[in-house]
Design brief:
With about 80 residues, the protein is mainly alpha-helical. It is built from three helices and no strands. It has one domain (about 1-80).
Length: about 80
């Protein structure tokens, strides 16, 4: 999702999203997350516990990668100051 937001950064804006664009992007991300969570919970409530576990494991990997990305970004940002 972060990649999609970054892809929308356009040189005409100096490579930055304004507040309206950022709010719209956040709304899109929240909507996608809600749809994915609903589908994941539906699998669990319908008895597909194995499918739920696979989804949970994938989510944990994405969370770990996101955490690493944020730490790297903070490190790079701190080194530029």
């Amino acid at each position: 999702m972060l990649g999609a937001a970054l892809a929308r950064l356009h040189p005409r804006n100096g490579g930055e999203l304004n507040n309206t664009e950022m709010a719209r992007e956040q709304g899109v991300r929240v909507s996608r997350l809600c749809v994915n969570l609903k589908a994941m919970l539906r699998r669990y409530t319908e008895g597909d516990e194995a499918g739920f576990e696979v989804g949970r494991d994938g989510t944990q990997r994405v969370a770990l990668a996101t955490s690493l990305l944020l730490r790297c970004s903070a490190y790079i940002g701190a080194s530029w100051q």
